[in-house]
Write a structure and sequence with these properties.
single chain; 361 residues; alpha/beta; eight-stranded parallel sheet; 16 helices
Length: 361
């Protein structure tokens, strides 16, 4: 059995954290689905920035859209929606076979709206309608301002990928927003089956404390936070409120491991995949990690249902001077800022390419 098949045997979905037009055009994404057990896909502003910046595959679409007077965010979302809808079509058989549990693709609202609830909701509705694909998750950041938009989007029947979560507390706040939307649908007599995942970023924890902690603690913080969050996740799934919602036909909002590519060159390149292969979760990973898993990965299912030794590990970090709560807030803010930077760079690349293509015409 290929190592990429093992997560599925343990009840975990394996998604690709990347999309480019080349992946679609040359059949690579289709091969990942057929040969490497990939059952979904995530994207973000940084991914689209790199895709457009490093390829001429978008030039024709940029030329055609700019000829119609499109520019800026409007043109950017045109490019993204073309890729995302093509990917959604590839995953649609999985979505249908699993009755909406798997087979999802994700598209993020403009990161410029991370602290604007009203505009985030409006854009989520617009993007979902434009894509016209049932297996599209709209990514909304789990910031303080994003939480009301998450609730309203779920109530409106829009599937949501809650992004930029860094702690159990942030996850629980996002899960509560999801459940409020579901409960309102039940009260209104609407179908409560609205897909959602909650994305916990893992490796950025270890990057943030690298060089600031004893060597014996290296690359342990991200896994400890993930295990603590997984424990909270299972407890929530077993709660009376959530089970009542499931009884009405709601889907569990699955916990998704994001940022699972190893950043430390001295650590295993499948560190976060091997240690977080647990039931009823998703692991979305970059291509390099997917290929490493297929080549030499060893799945051990090492995360205990009760969180294992996560609290003891977190206590060691506290003794080393790491304020986990403060760092979680910092990482969420930095993540939002990073996506804004990538978004602005993407708009700049599109603007430059538009001008160059017009000059060459």
């Amino acid at each position: 059995m290929n190592a990429t098949q093992l997560p599925r045997s343990l009840g975990q979905s394996l998604w690709l954290d990347n999309i480019t037009r080349a992946l679609l055009n040359n059949g690579t994404l289709k091969r990942y689905i057929n040969d490497l057990s990939v059952t979904g896909l995530t994207s973000n502003p940084t991914i689209f920035d790199h895709a457009v910046k490093n390829s001429s595959a978008y030039d024709g679409a940029i030329r055609a859209a700019s000829a119609k007077g499109k520019s800026g965010e409007d043109l950017s979302f045109d490019l993204a929606l073309e890729d995302i809808t093509r990917a959604a079509n590839l995953f649609r058989p999985i979505y249908d076979r699993t009755n909406g549990v798997d087979g999802w693709v994700s598209l993020e609202v403009s990161p410029l709206l991370a602290h604007d609830s009203t505009s985030t909701l409006a854009e989520a509705k617009e993007l979902f309608a434009r894509a016209n694909r049932p297996n599209l998750l709209i990514k909304i950041p789990g910031t303080k301002e994003g939480l009301p938009a998450i609730e309203e989007a779920i109530f409106a029947g829009i599937p949501v990928n809650v992004t930029l979560l860094f702690s159990a507390e942030q996850y629980l706040a996002a899960a509560d927003a999801y459940m409020r939307g579901i409960e309102r649908r039940i009260e209104a007599g609407l179908n409560p089956k609205v897909g959602s995942v909650a994305s916990l970023f893992v490796s950025r924890w270890d990057t943030a404390v690298a060089g600031k902690i004893p060597p014996t603690l290296a690359n342990q913080l991200g896994l400890a936070i993930a295990r603590q969050t997984y424990k909270a996740y299972l407890e929530l799934l077993g709660s009376a409120d959530w089970q009542r919602a499931f009884n009405e036909g709601a889907l569990p909002q699955r916990l998704l491991w994001a940022s699972t590519g190893t950043k430390d060159p001295h650590a295993s390149d499948t560190l976060y995949v091997e240690n977080l292969a647990v039931p009823l979760t998703v692991n979305t990973m970059p291509e390099t990690t997917l290929k490493a898993l297929a080549d030499h990965g060893r799945i051990g299912g090492k995360t205990a249902m009760d969180g294992g030794d996560c609290e003891a590990v977190l206590m060691r970090f506290a003794k080393a001077g790491v304020d986990v709560d403060a760092l979680a807030c910092q990482l969420q803010d930095e993540g939002a800022d990073s996506f804004v930077k990538s978004w602005n760079e993407l708009l700049g690349v599109i603007s430059s390419k538009t001008a160059a293509l017009k000059q060459a015409a």
